[in-house]
TrEMBL record:
Keyword list, A-Z: ATP-binding, Cell membrane, Membrane, Nucleotide-binding, Translocase, Transport
UniProt-recorded Gene Ontology molecular function terms: ATP binding; ATP hydrolysis activity; ATPase-coupled transmembrane transporter activity
Protein's UniProt name: ABC transporter ATP-binding protein
Any Pfam family hit: ABC_tran
Subcellular compartments: Cell membrane
NCBIfam families per UniProt: cbiO
Family, similarity comment: Belongs to the ABC transporter superfamily.
Protein's GO biological process: cobalt ion transport
GO cellular component: ATP-binding cassette (ABC) transporter complex
Predominant localisation class: membrane
Gene3D superfamilies: P-loop containing nucleotide triphosphate hydrolases (3.40.50.300)
Organism field: Oscillochloris trichoides DG-6
Amino acid sequence: MTILVEWEDLLYRYPGGEVVLNGASLQLAAGQRMVLLGRNGSGKSTLLRHANGLLRPQRGRVIVAGQPLDYSRAGLNVVRRQVGLVFQNPDDQLFSASVAQDISFGPMNLGLELDEVRARVAEAAQMCDVADLLERPTHALSMGQKARVALAGVLAMRPVALLADEVLAGLDPWAYEQVVAIFDRLVAQGGAVLLATHDLRLAEGWADVVAVMEQGRACISGI
Ligand SMILES: Nc1ncnc2c1ncn2[C@@H]1O[C@H](COP(=O)(O)OP(=O)(O)OP(=O)(O)O)[C@@H](O)[C@H]1O
């Protein structure tokens, strides 16, 4: 079993806040569909934000594709190609004027050729069904459209592990099924998907592994 992302005994306290992660350990393996459950404020997003170095633990370590995270700019560039993180609130993820610019932001930052960037943007936009929105300003989208654009921006980086925070919450049933199919495709290609969610349907019907955040730790659940 190839472990793509490993959280090892993390301790994390937000500046001036309380301890959120306290001995949190979890492994996400290639080919896994994992759901992370837990009450509001239990630390699910905080755990996810450690996987690509957005947060740095005060104790413990994060290992991606066998390498402990390197928090230098170059190191974070490498890890952000491997681990894609979709935020809970798409407004935290969308910055550019247009949808096309937003989806191309990540691939442009990788320094890819323009043709390659265009191909990736077209592919990701088509997968997420936002191809007809490419010229639209991001601020003029509905929440469900924003969520799909944010996902397209992450997919355009072609991550091997995709971590998403409540990404399915605001989607209509049709878009929901479509996004689940995108996750399944990534898993079938040897990647892994971890969804932080309150959606028990996903835990019961979709996940291979269900983890629960409680008291600063992630426990693998039997359900
Ligand atoms: N930027 C921040 N600064 C200080 N405290 C924070 C910050 N972000 C989150 N917290 C606190 O850390 C704790 C864990 O938050 P987190 O967002 O990780 O939980 P969650 O399990 O994802 O919650 P939800 O299900 O509501 O999305 C909460 O008590 C929250 O108030």
